[in-house]
Amino acid sequence: CSRANLGTAAAASHLDDDRKGLFALPGLHEPSDFARLARRAVARSDDLMRGLVSSGPSGFPHRSATAVIDDLDEISDTLCAVVDVAELCRNVHPDLRWVRAAENAYVELQGYVQGLNSNRGLYLALVKAQERHGAELSPEAARVALTLRQDFERGGIHLGGDEHARLEKTAGDVIKLGMAFQQNLSDPKALGHMNVSWLRLGGVPAGLLSSTAEGGSRDTGFARVHLDQRTVSAVLRYADEPDTRRSIYLAAHSGPEANRAVLDGLLRARHESAKILGFESHAHFATSPLLAEHPDAPRALLERMASECRDRAGEEIEAMLRLAGRDGMDG
């Protein structure tokens, strides 16, 4: 869970009444549990949010600054306990039922977080805690408060109505397009296949491949090589011919054609969000709170590292080429 906008403390589950489940998240034992855990996280966060917002100008003096920071941090912990697991599950779980359930929970909670990040009541409670009672905060709590405030403002809390509405829409588009991009990378239909002559597939187990030529034999027909990770890994491991391995590798890493439009949309949405917030580009927005501070800094670091490692890397490449040539001669 990106703590940007809601704190930096370690995620802590508030579901201790349940047994630990998948990825050690209490209560997560089957795909349908994601929806229940998401609802429970939202309900707990709503309770905390109402307490903060209702403190308002008249009620705030009765709340300590530390209590305000603690409640904001608990909201972050409560949501991230589920969001972090949903993010992990949707990327690594082999069962599509789990993946879809995790994606649904992830989208729901990210949308909820976007709403919190634009909640002026929460923002004002934080500002008042800093400005009126900041002296009572420990250095650690003061740092958390500063980070929270900066992240709220990076989320556009200071924007007017029309600009804020535009930002919310583009932020939602970024999440949806990012999800679509990842889905296409695991969708067999989107990944597609490559037709390769059987003659070029020596060494590859036949069970991994299917014939595409009617009546075609292994001598005259073609095999359909699906570009999913399992099949590609097997071909790269077993295929005797280097050219076959190279062709399959390039095809598999060219990306699904469907992602071309998705990526274009994602880049536009990110750029628009950054411009609304007053940044030159998404790269400037992304690096501004980091040690790098500017997108040129990572490039300069990588170029310096490349320069320093070039000689050693060249030696290793030459060694690998010699090994590849020797293996080819050994046939």
From TrEMBL:
Its cofactor is Zn(2+). GO terms for molecular function: metal ion binding; metalloendopeptidase activity. One of its GO terms (biological process) is peptide metabolic process. Residues 236-323 form the Peptidase M3A/M3B catalytic domain. InterPro entries: Neurolysin/TOP_dom2, Pept_M3A_M3B, Pept_M3A_M3B_dom. Belongs to the peptidase M3 family. This is Peptidase M3A/M3B catalytic domain-containing protein. It comes from Micromonas pusilla. The lineage of its organism: Eukaryota, Viridiplantae, Chlorophyta, Mamiellophyceae, Mamiellales.
